[in-house]
Amino acid sequence: MIAGSQRSSGAPSTRKILVAEDNAALQQILAQQFAHLDVSATIVGNGAEAVAALARESFALVFMDCHMPELDGFAATRAIRDARRRPACTCDHRDDGQRVQGRPRSMSGDRDG
Description:
The chain is α/β, with parallel strands linked by helices. It has helices at 24-36, 47-56, 73-85, and strands at residues 16-20, 40-44, 61-65, 100-103.
């Protein structure tokens, strides 16, 4: 997991996002890009870590890779949405516009449209 980025002033950004991506090179690129934009990014390596991160804190936006080990982006998104629907959920997540986004990846066998 890569911790949140800092603003050039040293103060953490108030815009927090969560990125679930298993590719270490892409994690580094995304961390640098979000730091450049003064966006605090928490980057995790799989869907299970994303679900756990969302149980601990709120994020303005979630970017989710679709194909990851342990728990893929589709299953993680379902788990996150199911947790938000449960009335006994202790997490502080409201349906206030926060969305889970998938990043499609071309798979062998995919047909060109």
